[in-house]
Amino acid sequence: MTDQAYNFAYLDEDTKRMIRRAILKAIAVPGYQVPFASREMPMPYGWGTGGVQVTAATLLPTDRLKVIDQGADDTTNAVSIRKFFQRTAGVATTERTAEATLIQTRHRIPETPLTEEQILVYQVPIPEPMRFLEPRETETRRIHALADYGLMQVRLYEDIARHGEIATSYAYPVEVACRYVMDPSPIPKFDNPKMNDCPAIQLFGAGREQRIYAVPPYTRVVSLDFDDHPFRASKASHDCAICGASDSYLDEVITDDAGGRMFVCSDTDYCAARAERGE
Amino acid sequence: MYVAVKGGERAIDAAHDWLDRARRGPAAQAVLDTDQIRDQLAIGVARVMAEGSLYDPDLAALAIKQARGDLIEAIFLIRAYRTTLPRFGAALPVETEAMRVKRRVSATFKDAPGGQILGPTFDYTHRLLDFRLMADGELDRDDTDGTPPDPGAMPCVDAPAKPALPHILDFLNRDDLIEAAAPDEAVPGDLTREPMELPAERPLRLQALARGDEGFLLGLAYSTQRGYARNHAFVGELRIGTVAVEMDIPELGFAIEIGEVELTECETVNQFKGSRTEPAQFTRGYGLTFGQTERKAISMALVDRALRWAELGEDDQGAPAQDQEFVLSHCDNIQATGFLEHIKLPHYVDFQAELELVRRLRASVEDPAQEGAE
Known about the structure:
Chain A is of the alpha/beta class. Chain A has helices at 13-28, 49-58, 76-89, 137-145, 150-163, 192-195, 268-276; strands at 34-35, 64-69, 92-93, 102-106, 119-123, 174-176, 180-182, 201-206, 211-215, 221-223, 250-254, 261-265.
C-alpha cells in the first residue's frame, strides 16, 4: 500500500541526511536546539511537521510505528500521521507501546516504560523554553550560550510569590545533562520524571521554528524547582474509571448536562491492556 | 459504562468525503475548469504563485480549485508540492530591464523614455458592480486573448535590443541623486534550504518578503505611511511583464533560455539621507513578485525600505515595520495559519493539567490550610 510516487517516508534522501545530521548534533549536545532547514510538509505547521520530519528521517522499513496524540492512538491527528507513514513508507504500525520501535507523540509520554530499543519523537510547537519571557531569538540564543537562566528562576519565584506554587502545569521546563534548559514540549508535568534516565532515545522536532533537539539515553533530566518548593508531578486525584489505575495520567470527561464527569486514562493503550488483563 | 471515544479514522474519511462533495457544488452546475481559473481568476492565481514560491499557473489554478477558493490553503498546497521538486540548479538573475511589459507606471516623472503604460489595471475603474457579468449578458468578444486592445498602446518590445526599457530610477542614479542599487555579486542564501538566521541580510529579507503574506505586508507598509517609521515612499516605477529565465548549462558552456515568467517589480524612491559633509541622496526600497501582484510588490518595497534603517543610519523608532525579527518571523502565512489553526486540535491533556492546577490554587485560597498539601 506504499505510494510509489514518493520516496520512502516522503522526504528525499538529501533532506533526510540533512535532518539526520541535525539529529546527531542534537544527541551530541543534549538539550541544545539545533537549527535545521525544515521543509514544508503536506500537513500544516502546528500539526506536527517537526515530529513528522524527524520520524521520516529516522524510520527504517523494519520499524514498527506507533503514533499518539494526547496519549491516544485514535485521536484524529494521530490517525492522520499514522496513515501518512503507512502510505509513504509502508511500515508496520501498532497501538501497543511495548511493540513499537518508534513512537511519535504529541503532548504525552506513554505510561509503559520505554526501552533501549525504542525512539520517542515529540512534536514541538515552541522549542524555546525562554520564549514567553523573551520573544527575541537573537536574545534567547545568547541566554543559552551563557547559561544565563536567571530570568526563568525569577519567573518561577514570582509564581510562588503570587500563587504559593509554580503555576506551570505543562511544558514545564527541565535542565538537561546539567547544562541546557529545555522545553519538554507541552506534556503535562506529570510526565516530566519519565524523561530522566530514560533508556530510549528522545528526539524533539519543531518544524515551523526549524529546530531539533534531543535527550540521549540515560541522561539526567531535572525539572526546575527550588529546595523549599520541590517539583511535584501532579495529576487529578482520582483513579481511572475504566481500568482503575491510580498511577496514570487522567483525562476528565464530561458525561451529562448536570456537570457529571469521570476520569479515564489518557494513555489508551495502557488503559486497554489493563482492562484486558482484568486489573 | 463510558467507552473511550473511538472512530477518529472513520470521522476523517467522512469529513473528506463531505469536503469533496461541497467543493464540487450542485451536480447540475458545470464543473469549474482549471483553465478558466487560470485565465479568468488570474490575479488570484498570481498571488498563489507568488506566496507559494512556485511559478506554475496551471498548478496554482488546480490548487485554487481544490482549496475551494481559499487562497492561503491553495498557497499551502503549492508549498507542499514544491518541497517534493528536485533542484537542478539556479537560473541566472532575470533582467527586468529587458521585460516585455504590459504595465509600467511612474509616479515620479510625468513621462520617461518608454512611456507610461497603464495596462490591464483596476486603477481608474469605477467600483460599480457590473450586473451584466452576473446576468450572463457579457459582451461577446473574440479578442480576449489577453493582448492589448490597441497595439499602439504597447511599446514595440517583442524583439528587445537590451536594454529594452530602462529603469526610471537609473535616470536619478546617473546624477547620483539616488543611492546606487548595491551591485552585490555574492550568491544569496536560500531560506528554503537553510534555516533563517537572525539578523538576516537584505537578500534573505527580500526572499522572505517575496513569499510573505500580502495582507500582513500591506498592513505593515500602511503603518509606515501613517508614521510608524515613515520613509516617504514614491513609486519611482512599477512594471509588470514577462522576462526570460536563462540558465547556464555546463555541458554547453553558455546560458540558454529555459522559459519565461511574469513578474511585478516595484522600485520606490524614498526619503533622502545626507549631512553637511555628505550630499543628500534619495534611498531605495525594492519589491519583486511573481505574476500581476502589484499591491504586494509595493508593500514589499515599503517594508524593505523600513527594514533598512540600520544600514542607512536612521533611528530605530521601535516601529513594527523596522523590527526584522518581528517582520520575518511572522510574515509567512503558511507558518502563521498553521500555528494559529492548530489550537483547534485536541489539547485535552494540557487543559486537564491547567484545570487541576486552577482547582488546587482555588482550594488553597478558600482554605489556606490546604496550601502545600498533597
